[in-house]
Amino acid sequence: MNILFCGGGTAGHIMPAIAIAESFKKHDRNTKLLFVGREGGSENRAITNKGYPLKTLRISGIERRLTVRNIKNIFTALHSLKEAEKIIKVFSPDAVIGTGGYVSWPIITKAHKLGIPTAIHESNASAGLVTKLLSKKCDILFLNMQGSENEYKGCKNIKIVGNPVREEFGRLTYRSAREKIGIRDGEFFILSLGGSGGSEKINDAVIALMKKHTLKGPKIKHIHSCGIKYFDEIKTKYPSLARGINGCVIKPYIDDIEKMLSAADIVIARSGAMTLSELAAVGAAAILIPSPNVTNNHQYKNARLLADSEACILLEEKDLSEGALLDTVLSLEKNDSERIKLRQNI
User: Fold this and answer.
1) Which pLDDT tens digit goes with each residue over 260-275?
2) Which helix (H) or strand (E) holds 21?
3) DSSP for 294-321?
């Protein structure tokens, strides 16, 4: 079989596609896979690192207002339909699976017109604009969360399937993951992430945390993923942290995230659906800082659900400060039973 995947914008759109792709390969090694992502997307790195072939389309988000930039984006989107058709006809897929982001629109639209079976997987509780637009065209809509089907009026074929994660997230134990990345017995490991695109506010708060606490702890290890677009600036301002000092290091991106999450004593992260699924898969004690810059504030809703079940600590970005993050980390670091409870509940 030939299976074409399309998705992009964030790692939350890419990682479910990779998990599904790996399942196809497990069942049939002869399956041919092709990914289509957004041109220039840093999230595409996860695809190429896995060795999967990748094509890209030039496409940007469409705003719901009339601007010069938006008119240009509309023309770019229309042009992407022609490029999408070329990719589809050359690869000749038996099925097309979209996992969200604007790049899914031209691929699913063209595949539908060509009579190729199509599916979409939506991982968030709140529907993305592209998923809503395409849900009536695709043959089947896969959803992560029960109750979110109410947002898709007129879509007849819906299945609640959860969020697929790669098998690596179930293979490593806390101890075996720590051995692989060199965390010794008695060392406390903090992992912090600003999301696939990075976050300036989280970067600032984490750097302050490193300066005031984790750099000073002889048995504390702290790795932070700042986002590719912020790394050069951080490397200039804080060269020692970019190189690594006293067990603390700032990286642009983390490739072996399954090892890092499995080994961490505390994870500081955003609360996109894919991140939460991966945190749950490894049983992480997490401090979640939802991004306020997402559709329908869905990251807050995701984190709120977990916080109400005592499965995470919720720290909103509007309350994020050097002191607030430090106090939260110190409280959790000193409380073994609280971390155990969070790991079990998530």
Assistant:
1) 999 999 999 999 888 9
2) helix 11-27
3) SGGGHHHHHHHHHHHTTSSEE--GGG--
